[in-house]
Specification:
There is one protein chain. The chain is mainly alpha-helical and about 120 residues long. It has one domain. About 65% of the residues lie in helices and about 5% in strands. Strand 1, helix 5 (about 105-115) and strand 2 (about 120) form a beta-alpha-beta unit. Helix 3 (about 45-60) packs antiparallel against helix 4 (about 65-80).
Length: about 120
């Protein structure tokens, strides 16, 4: 991962973890969705965001999120280098193969520093 992309990913993950630690799960999840967009082409970063989404789901007792994140973690580890749905935010209530619009600030980072992977 390019250092600038890594920095942006780490900012989002740090914000998510800090919010998680104080029980602010919805804003934590929003930062995880942004981290997911930035890291989804990199297996470890991708799986890490899904792990934290699972943790948020667990804390919220959200069965849909818990059940939905388990296969996503495995998929992240196996397929991130080959194919990802562009802009997908990673939550269990979003179809896992659906491409989505990317926020402009993240798109600029990905255009400049993202991995060139096949996207749909």
């Amino acid at each position: 991962m390019h250092p600038e992309l890594r920095r942006a990913y780490d900012v989002e993950m740090t914000a998510a973890m800090n919010l998680y630690d104080v029980g602010n799960f919805q804003p934590a999840f929003s930062h995880l969705a942004r981290a997911h967009i930035l890291g989804q082409s990199f297996p470890i970063a991708h799986a890490r965001t899904h792990w934290w989404m699972l943790k948020v789901g667990w804390q919220r007792r959200d069965l849909v999120e818990i059940v939905g994140q388990l296969p996503r973690i495995l998929g992240a580890l196996l397929f991130s280098r080959v194919w990802v749905p562009k802009g997908n935010t990673g939550g269990a209530r979003v179809p896992p193969f659906k491409s989505m619009p990317i926020p402009e600030d993240l798109q600029m980072l990905l255009d400049k520093h993202g991995r060139d992977v096949k996207t749909v």
